[in-house]
Amino acid sequence: MNCEEFEELFSFHECSSPNGLHSPLSSNARTNSCVNTSQKSDLGSSTGKREASKPPPTLTLDPEIEKKLYDYQKEGIEWMYLRHCKGRGCLLADEMGLGKTVQVSAFLGAMYRNKLVTSTILIVPPTLIPMWEKALLEWGGLQPPLLEVLRGECDKRTQRLQRLRHGVPCFFIATYGMLRQDGVIMSAQMVDYVVMDEAHLIKNASTRVFKSAMSLSARHRVAITGTPLMNNFEDLWGIFQFVDGAILGSSRAEFRRTNAILLRGNERDAAGRERAAASQQLALIQMAIRPYMLRRGKQQLESVSAAKRDLIIWLQLDDTQKRMYTSLSNGDSEKQVAQNSAACEPFLLLTSLMQTCNHPWLNLDDETYRGSIQNPFQHPEGGPELGNVFSSSKIAAGIALVVKCISENRKVLVFSRSKRMLDLFGVTLMNWLIDFMRVDGDTAPEERLDIVSQFSEKNNIWVLLLTTQVGGIGLTATAASGVVLLDPSWNPSIDAQAVDRVHRVGQTRDVVVYRLITCGTVEEKIYRNQIFKSMAAKQGTAGAEGVGEGGSVEFHRYFTRLQLRNIVDIGVLDHSETAIHLRCLNPDSVLETERSSLLSLPFVCDVSDNGCILVRSTDDDENDEEGVNIRSVEPCGGSLCQYHGDKALRPVKRFRPECSDQDGLSEYF
């Protein structure tokens, strides 16, 4: 069955059962409320006649541009043109680093040259404006005055938007902030295309930016994101509601119930009927979105992508960190949190625990911190219990990994969510006489590309420090082939975006990624939630990747509902239970020589292969307690572990203390 047949067969009617979505109905049964009328209506449009004419069967690209495109990028442009010919919106969701910006720029340029498009509004994050200007010029052949970035005060932007009313061909670039402020003005005039880059920013239907995006009047809508599903399946509803409300059709409240079914089905302690219900709902969603979503991964395009080695480096806490972390977890602060229902209290505790995992100084007040960073090798005013700049296993292991990369002739990107952590890491780099540069939220957008260029060109600059939130989007740093993530993000896609600054089209060397996570802490719980979210994201996009044509994709379920929620409970701090479980699932994923080399680094107690997380589920995973087969695997060291359906991971023979009966794994798996 082709995409056109799917389009008609699997668009949902705007109704669902209390237990989730109904089976798809034919297009004849759709109600008008499902249809994005701003896409369909051309009433009062001065260019309605042009839209009514049948477009040519193929889109002609500029020969000079076409020869620079990869084959898969040409296929992406052709796919967008087919969606255009059908009069429907679409989501380009290629994995990060595969050139979505290039494809859309080439598509819009070709549409303009073929006189199929004269007006477009592109909504992008402010940091990506320079990249889009460059791409639209280089790949689309669009330049001023045809191409214009909206700037200045609201009155000035309103004046520039009047070009749309007068029928002047124009391609506007605006930011999400402008969309929030000028949504009414932008929606006053019909345009040929609205393009939303980083479309996951409109996934929350409660936000003003989502409502402003929905109000835009456009004949065609294109959403672009490499992370269409970041937290849960409800993210898909927001994005596809913008693309075309008829695709999923259900109301937000109805889809929220579907989301609950899907998430529960992914938990390890879900009952068989809950898993079956989730599989059914997932299959319906995959079939509904498949015609409108194009997603290719780097693994599918090995000819244009370098290999990637993605490792979890499990660390023990430094003694100073351990004392502070234990005090925060078990002290009076925890009791206060338990007695206080205010949402801010547990959040403050959680923040303090996460900061301690990085460095105790991250918990200092601003004045004390400023004084301490001036004398980083001395104890701050709070006393010796706060340590000095070196009182962090993250600093020690991170520097060791940077030195390892330099010895392999690799330039390195070092990411952290905390600017203070970058301060401390920078001080340590200077102590090691390692030259570095830095990009964070205080770096002007126009300076960021220049810093990356200097980092790429200067042979003496080995390290680029970046905040994950800022450095993770809009930058290309393929001169580096090493990445160190000092701390995990709540959302795995944010870390993936950071990694893909290096692992992308144009990279000529194999890439190595080191993710630093402390054992038994909130970071280990965050990583477990990353696995859960990654599995949901893979399931949600499997249909668009051409996986699971015959139904939903099943992956191994790692965690129970209880384990995913007890986020601040202190665990075993001298080893990682998650690492043991991953090693039992994938005993040969890390070579012994590689493991031994990394275990020799300070504070490193285990190593896991992050690239082996999304393993397909086996019959054993799906069986109930009665009559299941037992699957055994042999992790390193000869400790034989069993999987018994939904039951816990249990040791059979114990040759190492880490696989003992007292390891507590039954509480988590």
What does this protein structure show overall?
- It is a single chain.
- With 669 residues, the chain is an alpha/beta fold.
- It folds into 3 domains: 1-29 and 250-293, no CATH class; 50-249, 3-Layer(aba) Sandwich (Rossmann fold), CATH 3.40.50.10810; 305-540 and 556-667, P-loop containing nucleotide triphosphate hydrolases (Rossmann fold, 3-Layer(aba) Sandwich).
- Helix content is 41%, strand content 13%.
- It contains 27 helices and 19 strands.
- A hairpin with a 6-residue loop joins β18 (641-643) and β19.
- α5 packs across α6 (100-113) and α12 crosses α13.
- Mean pLDDT is 78; it is low at 1-20, 22-52, 332-344, 546-553 and 615-669.
How much of the sequence lies in strands comes to 5-15%
Task: Determine the CATH topology of the largest domain.
Answer: Rossmann fold
Structural class: alpha/beta
What is the CATH homologous superfamily assignment of the largest domain? P-loop containing nucleotide triphosphate hydrolases
CATH class of the largest domain, named Alpha Beta
Strand order of the largest sheet: 5-6-4-7-8-3-9
The CATH architecture of the largest domain is 3-Layer(aba) Sandwich
Number of helices: 27
Whole-number count of domains = 3
Instruction: Please bin the fraction of helical residues.
Output: 40-55%
DSSP, total strands: 19
Gap from first CA to last CA: 40 Å
Question: Describe the biggest sheet?
Answer: 7 strands, parallel
Radius of gyration: 26 Å
Model regions low in confidence, pLDDT < 50 over at least 5 residues: 1-20, 22-52, 332-344, 546-553, 615-669
Quick one: overall form? Answer: globular
